[in-house]
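Appendix B, Record 12. Input sequence as logged:
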Amino acid sequence: MESLIARKTWRTLEPIHGMIYFVPEAEAEYMHLGVTLQRTGYFASRAAPMGAVNADVVISTFYNFNPALVRAAMVGAWEIAPPSEFTKVRFRAVDAALRRAWGDDVVCSSEVHELASLLRRIAEVACEKPEGRPLFAGHSSVPWPDQPHLVLWHAQTLLREFRGDGHIAALTTEGLSGIEALVSHAASGEVPAQALTSSRSWSDEEWRSAIDGMRGRGLVTKSGDLAFTPAGNEQRKRIEATTDALATAPYAAFGEKVCEKIRELGRPLSKAILEAGLLPLR
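Logged structural output:
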């Protein structure tokens, strides 16, 4: 199967996973635990399936966040609540947010049940190959929930982290640091630089320094707006191709027709999440 099919299938359903980083239901659950810093809720809840890891493990596996931000956010995180509690309340937030976006009728629908079943089978294939994917491996140890809409979310989460760990492998192979990975992303034109620096807490000085380093290696242009040189453009293509190749196997195990069915079932669900405002507009 072409890796493009796997990418399209993952991307179609990504809003189902990605909304958890923005919905007020998540912040409310973390605050109920005793979290006072919003970023603590994000880092601790996503890292929790790996256990009570220290900030260095989070820095390594999350990759492109400013290490100072991670260290500040993780101070005392596991004293607020154990990892299992962060995982539990994250699922509670998912349940509430999806019910808000879809309504109880859709949550309980045969379409959600079918999609959850299909995507779980794909995610379980990924779980057979956790080697070299630490964040994914942690999430793969989380017990499957019972309700189909939560099964669907967990399956997409697993496939997202499976792909993400492969993406980090591609970035490290190309010799890009965390902040340089963001420079590469910005130079591609997919996301504004300001959105990347503010969400990952990099200063203007750190950003300029990273750009200068990549200019010195001939990867981005030396003047004008941030853009790739031919060498940088080729590097970006290699990164994306490697990421796609490393993420394809679970989808390929079931073929294009199953992936097409997943996209057919997933499109209206993702659209509903966007229309409900669960994800910010770029």
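Residues 3-172+241-275 form one domain.
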